[in-house]
Amino acid sequence: MRIPVRVLVAIACFALAGCSSSGKSGFGSWGWGEDSPPPASSETTGSIGDPANDSNLAVKDALLGGDPSDDLSLGKRHYRERNYGLAEQHFRRAVEKLPRDGEAWLGLAASYDRLRRYDLADRAYREAVSIYGPRPEVLNNIGYSFLLRGDLRKARHKFIEAQAKDPENPTIAKNIALVDEAVRRKKGLN
Questions:
Q1: What is this structure's pTM?
Q2: Which of 37, 61, 144, 175 is the most exposed place for a label (fewest CB within 10 A)?
Q3: Integer angstrom CA distances of residue 154 from 38, 66, 69, 140
Q4: How far apart are CA 32 and CA 81, in angstroms?
């Protein structure tokens, strides 16, 4: 099964944005991380309509969504702005319209995590796994969900599972370090 480039870019951005040692959520994705959108780079800048920059439009569409007013794009925007309730509404509408849109399911799961609706987040993650399979980026996000819940054992297990699939991923390594630090603090070893 071939996965569209837009989806792969989205998954990669989802896993990489916002997962930092500062303890911020690992759910900012697709260029809609917690702190800020990614800085402009030579890959995403250029004048619109310039044939030399047509590939830049594809990258922008992949990161921002094709239609800025569709539910997926609005969900991303609201999530980026930390309006998790509005983000949840838009992601929920997106999955109702396109039930096999893994990107929307991941956004919905992340929104539920931020709203502390972990029962619903678990369901959304199950849907994302049924679409994408146990990809390291998805496992990393599930691990971060457990970290937010305070279940350090399950969080570390998911991070290790993700790292086994992508040993060089720095975000996963940072999340394992976060769990280990939390365990040390919990035991009073700091």
A1: 0.66
A2: 61
A3: 30, 36, 37, 11
A4: 8
